[in-house]
Every structure is written in C-alpha cells, then in structure tokens.
Amino acid sequence: MADLPLPPGSTIGILGGGQLGRMLSQAASRLGFDVVILDPEENSPAGRVSRGQIVAAYDDPTALNVFGRVCDVVTFEFENVPAASVERLAEAGALVAPGPTALAVAQDRVDEKTFLNAVGATTVKFAAVDSVDDIMAELDQVGLPCLLKTRRDGYDGKGQAWIRDYTNVPEAWAAIGGRPAILEAKAAFTRELSIIAARGRDGAVAVYPLGENKHAGGVLRTTNAPAQIDAKTEKRAKAIAASILDGLAYVGVIGIELFDLGNGTLLVNEIAPRVHNTGHWTQDGCVCDQFEQHIRAVAGWPLGPTKAHAQVEMTNLLGDEVEQWSKLAAKPDQRLHLYGKAEARPGRKMAHVNRVRPL
Ligand code: AMP
Fold first, then answer.
1. Are 297 and 253 in contact (CB under 8 A)?
2. Where along the chain do its domains lie?
3. What is the pLDDT of residues 64-90, one digit of tens each?
4. What is the dotted CATH code of the domain comprising 191-357?
5. 313-328, pLDDT tens digit by residue?
6. What is the reported pLDDT for 1?
7. How far is CA 149 from CA 141, 179, 220, 237, in A?
8. Which pLDDT tens digit goes with each residue over 125-149?
9. Which terminal residue of the chain has fewer beta carbons within 10 Å of its beta carbon, N or C?
10. How far is it, in rounded angstroms, from Cα 77 to Cα 339?
C-alpha cells in the first residue's frame, strides 16, 4: 500500500470517465499526478485528458485487478459504480477513498436517510415501500402529497413520481417501474441549497460557503454562491456537514443537498459521495476548487482553503445550448468549462459557464 502523503508522480485511479472525472484528472495533473481512468466507454471525456484509460465494465475482475495494481489510490466520480467493485479493490489492498461504506450508504435512499437521521441530520419523513399495499399502509404517517422514488439508481429526478391522493398510487408505482422504493413527505422548501465539504485523511474538515440551486425538470440549471444566508443557519449547515463526514469516516469531497424551509430549518435531501455539479462554482470562486480539494484529500495532502474570493453564478449548458460557446467565450466576466463530449444529446450536460463578480 502506498505511503501517504502521496508524492507527485504517483498514480491516481478514477472509476468513471465523465466530466467530473475529467475535471478531477485536470486538477490531479496540475499537482503532478498521473491519472488512469476505468470506464466502459472508449474515449471518455476523462480518458482523453488522462495518462490512460482501461476500457472495461466496472465489475470486470481482471480490469479491477490491473487497475488496483497500477494505481496508488483509487477514487470514483459517480455514485453508481458497483459498491462490490470498490470493496474488491479495497480487499485486494488498494487504497480507496471515499470508502465502500460511504458509497453503499449513498446508493440506497432508505439507508441514506436512516444514516442521516442517526447522525442528527434531519430529513423529511420517509418509509421504505415494496408494493402498492405498502404505500397504502404508509400514506397516513408520511402524509399527502408525497414523492415515491426508487431506492437505487435514481439521478437528476429520474425514477420519481408524485402521489397526490390515494387513487394515483398504482399509477405512481407503475411509473417508477414497480421497484423497491422510498416514500418521502413533501418538503415545503423555499429554496434548495447545497454544501460542498471535504474531510482529509487526518480527520480535518473543510466546508465551502453554501450554494443556492435552481433545478428545471429535475436537472440542475444554476448555482449561485456564496448563497445569501444568515450566520446561524450557515453555522448549522456546516455542523450538519461535519457530522455526516465524521459519521462516515469519510475521505474526499462530498456534496450535500439541502431543503431550506425558510424558518431556520434545513433538511438534508441527499448526499453524493463525490465532487458535485453544485460545486463547480468553486473553480472560479475559490483558490482551491472542489476538484483539487478532492485530490488533496485522497492523496493525504493537507486540505486547501475554502473561502470565496468572488460571487459566482454557475449555469449548466445542456444539449445544444453548448453551441453558444463562441458567444460565451467572448464575455469578459464568464469562464467556460467544456467537457469535450462529441454528441450533444437533448438534456445531456455538455459544459458549464461561471459568471464571476467581485464579492
Ligand atoms: P433528488 O433526485 O432526490 O435529488 O430529487 C430531485 C429534485 O426533486 C430535488 O432537487 C427537489 O427539487 C425535488 N424533490 C426531491 N425530493 C423532494 C421532497 N421530498 N419534497 C419536495 N421536493 C423534492
């Protein structure tokens, strides 16, 4: 197993070759590391800016063995990599961060909310449901309207259906594909916030200023950061982040999505055990962005500063919106981050732009 802190010249492995892997790879390369990507898709956005890519399924045992051997530390860029693969790498002696527990907790919405409540991070009321009958039995305690979500594999608002009254239960159950699910009470939020935070190998915790997020059709459109927030609420948000990170003995950057109920109450919606789309503003608003922070944490380096030096509005460019690139590139207050994806399918995250203003 590699000695820590990992010196420059060491190799960092990333499971997943999308835009998050690409920006992690770019940050790692600036700190003198080599990066190897494991992703089933050839020529992935991250693979194209890295030392190499192993093209294989995430659960391919031979590929995982080779990957574990060539990398001094392994991390991941999305939470749907099989937890068993991460466990396998760890058991074979690879240094993996964040660990398999954090990944497993974040992959199951019921386990996630159970964990959150156990560490004192409040969530909406919820119940695990496996059938129409279960839903009927839980509706009274969860309350109407409520949101039915698949326990696993949901992202960007997919695998979710609202239940407004008893009559539309079978329809909602069919809409999510009749799979093991969670029934969630509706959060009457006034806005959605998120926290990007990191925990180092020594247990040090660093938290960025909060971001305020706007979604459309379940997909993030903009993040404004630092969010306008009173000092007491911000302090509470940071305490929530620290208890989640400590509770998972976490190493790396985490994204925590919050509902702000507007009366001083913050509920945690979900956690993402990785760098997060709502943290892209840090690239142009902080000296050490979330990507460098993650690399620092997993490599056992000291965490970097998290203070904002600018007000940033991050906007995602989806599908053919990326065609505006030359117009956006000409704007003096905007910094464009393109992911190098060839095909601009509708709704696909192709790029983001950070509009920067003095604080
Ligand atoms: P998620 O996939 O859990 O991040 O949900 C996607 C979006 O759906 C969130 O960003 C919220 O806008 C909305 N949402 C999710 N859960 C709830 C809830 N329990 N109450 C109200 N809105 C929700």
1. yes
2. 11-96, 125-185, 191-357
3. 999 999 999 999 999 889 999 999 999
4. 3.30.470.20
5. 999 999 999 999 999 9
6. 66
7. 17, 9, 18, 25
8. 999 999 999 999 999 999 999 999 9
9. N
10. 14
Does residue 124 line the site of ligand 1, with CB under 6 A?
A: yes
| Nearest-angstrom CA–CA distance, 229 and 113 | 25
Cα-to-centroid distance, 265 and ligand 1 (Å): 16
Distances (CA, A) of 205 to 49, 237, 246, 250, 293: 29, 13, 9, 10, 11
Amino acid identity for residue 357 in this structure = R
DSSP secondary structure letter of residue 119: T
Question: Is the minimum distance from the CB of 184 to ligand 1 under 6 angstroms?
Answer: yes
Q: Please, what's the b/e burial string for 191-204 (b: 16 or more CB within 10 A of its CB; e: otherwise)?
A: bbbbbbbbbbbeee
- Residues 6 or more apart whose CB falls under 8 angstroms from that of 137 comprise none
For 11-96, CATH number?
Answer: 3.40.50.20
Here the tokens at position 185 are 């009470």
Q: Does domain 125-185 have CATH number 3.30.1490.20?
A: yes
Q: From the CB of 215, is ligand 1 less than 6 Å away?
A: yes
Which residue blocks in the chain are alpha helix, DSSP H?
Answer: 19-30, 61-70, 83-91, 100-107, 109-118, 132-142, 169-175, 231-247, 282-285, 290-298, 325-329
Task: Say whether pTM exceeds 0.70.
Answer: yes
Looking up tokens 């180092």 gives 200
Q: CA 200 to CA 209: how far, in whole Å?
A: 18
- Contact yes or no for 19/318 (Cβ under 8 A): no
Residues 6+ apart with CB under 8 A from 339: 18, 19, 22, 45, 349, 350, 351
- Mutation to probe ligand 1, out of 155, 212, 269, 276 (largest number of atoms < 8 A from CB): 269
